[in-house]
Amino acid sequence: MTYPLPTVHVLYENPDWLPPLIQGLHAEGFMVDLVPIDGGAIDPNQPPSEGIWLNRISPSSHTRDHHHSVGMTREILFWLENWGRRVINGLSAYELEMSKARQDQILRKHGIRTPKTVLAAGRPATLKLAAGFDGPFITKHNQGGKGLGIDLFESVDKLAEYLDSPDFDPGPNGQIILQEYISAPSPFITRVEIVGDRFLFAMRSSTETGFQLCPSDACQLQAQGPDVCPIDGGSKFSPSPITADDPLVRKYIKMCQAEGIDVAGIEFIEDQNGNRLTYDINGTTNYNSVLGEQIGIDGMRELARLVKQEVLEDKPISFSA
């Protein structure tokens, strides 16, 4: 006896990221309900719709004028989980993604090396913490995404000038991360993609043109202009030789299992001495189609298969695709 697959409700705020995910879910036989989140309302006495919920709300949502997405999503995820709904990248994973300061603490908790990282709000506190760095340091938004707020400083004086300039952007909540600058021997970072406690692939992202490294095709088009095909821009991303047996990958997977992270793109950089330092956990991860075709892996299809696997494991009777 077979049953239809449950509906997958997708919480989202950026429609440009949806097509590959929708295609993957449809290919696995799911009906998809798109739930845009910016404003909205919740009646906590009313149960959410049945089915599986998938969280795709990004910490960079404010850059698309969705200023209520992050706060509203926090309340929606609590409501969903309080009613026992399964959420892919639920509240625990979401709170971690919204704070790079928390990410640093969680990474170190699991024995993963990170650059020196501190958090400040306000000019006096920011300058005081900056004085504690022995060498160059970078700033970034605590609620980040898209490489926002990343600037390199050689001294506290240079940072002070920046804080007083009209170019300074404090981010959506005024919280600034100051982080040790890592001088890499080669201009790239490595991103490890994990789906459902499983290593999917790793890729190198070139930093030669900056740190706005979202791999989605939509982001590549926005960065290069409307007349540039994403296929032509795929060279920014290339396969990494890292495998599932890598000790760092194994630490990442254990961390995800312990912290309730279902889907993640985790980034590290290698310094001049070969030390690998991890600095970012992306829960709203995207995949580049050019790289996917090159290595033979469709990231969003694998995410859809994770959802289907959970459904099948929850039911003793097989489902029709």
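(the above was protein one; protein two follows)
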Amino acid sequence: MFVLFIALGSFMAAGMACSGGSATNGTTSPANTSASTPAPSTPAPSAPKSIAGDYDASGTNVDGGGAYKANLTVTPRDDVYQFSWNSAGKAYDGVGVMTDNAVAVSYTDGANGKGCGVVLYKIGPNGSLEGKSGYWGVNSAESEKATRTSGTDLEGKYDITGTNTDGKDYKGSLEVKKSGDGYTFLWNAGESFEGFGIKTGDKVAVGFGGRQCAFVSYDAKPDGTLDGKWGGQGSKSFGTEVAKKK
């Protein structure tokens, strides 16, 4: 995580068993035991209710860089989370949002992540994107829906509508392009801005705010561990990070 910023210039249904019988001329027939009975399904592991706390983090840097260790503190800020790392005496700070068991963070180096933002999209069956966004220093989240108008898979063009952190509605357009192991996001909603992120399953984590802002895409495990990949604009391959609660 940290080599990148030096290089940039300091970034859950149980199945129901079937049984029954029918009555004819007052005689009750036995249950139809020949019918197959579906086995109960196993609920997916649930995410922790809160990811707040102190963690020991370790990982690998982007583009085949070396390993690192860090202390991580996750602080709840109403609708979002503040992420603060310290590694070898250097501070990094950012903003995170959570949907289901997925967490997306955007951060940069220094004592605050001013200027950085993050969006966590959930991909619908029809290819639409339902997003939750956070901005460093703002405790409320933003919502957005992107409806694809062209393209396949994640790539393509979208019409977007949303409600910003002030409660005001907006609309615009979004274009998503494959870029190395990740995707470039180009929004236009009165003003243009760019982000870069990663697709994991049916979620997409995108960081924005300039090249100084990188992103992390975490999977929040039932035991509280955060298992993630991270990177930024210009990175050719992603780094990894595992953060375990102290």
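Reviewer note on protein two: Residues 2-41 have pLDDT under 50 and may be disordered.
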